Amino acid sequence: MLVQSTIEQFVEGWVICRRVPNTRIHKESAFIHVQFGEHVGGRTDEIFINEAAPETLKQVEQYMNEQQKYWLTVFSEGEPLNLSQYLYRVSETLMVNKLIEPLDQITAAAGTEVKLIDDEAEALELNAYFNAAIADPRRIKDTDIEDYAVYVNGKPAGNGRISFNPAEGVACMDNIYVDAAYRGNGLGKVLCSTLLHRAQPLSKSCILASSDMGYPLYKKLGFEPICNMHVYEQAGS
Known about the structure:
Elements: H1 4-18, E1 24-27, E2 31-40, E3 43-50, H2 54-63, E4 71-76, E5 86-97, E6 112-116, H3 120-130, E7 145-152, E8 155-165, E9 170-178, H4 187-199, E10 205-210, H5 215-220, E11 224-234
Parallel strand pairs: 3-4, 9-10
Antiparallel strand pairs: 1-2, 2-3, 4-11, 5-10, 5-11, 6-7, 7-8, 8-9
């Protein structure tokens, strides 16, 4: 069985990154239920479980019977399972950086800038530019999350965010993205290094969910894999 405390720390940091008004976390004995109260990234509810045992899945189905359709994330050391009642979406890797080693100095190329998004108008402009929910303008003044954008010669080229959970001493990096036209120029490293430098004075560790594409970069930056994360969508949702 995977370490439940690490999973809970990730879920809490992940939720801080996505929190909207009325978001709730319900910790049941066998799973964690995140209830957003509005659509966030295609769902209103998500269930997180530690290994997909049949009895756990049955408990989830009974619990969610009267709820909205939901997504299911399974933390596992194995490969994705063929769950007939769910549609497979994606697999990621849960990774942790203990923030023990000194961080490399950031060396950005000329014309490259990583900037904190601290203005509602700027947040809206970036959302429109990328046609995505990059930064929530309602949360610009929140102290537990920071959104960043990468600019190359004044044009947006990528984005990322980091949340802080002082009670646990854990930061969570999230939504790291570099536009395809700018990849291969080290922008991802510059962006992630900026976030890690922000995390180190405030946190004992930094946690994230890595895509296959991002995995080599995160390894170079000191992150270590903990387990797989398999994401499913309830069939018919």
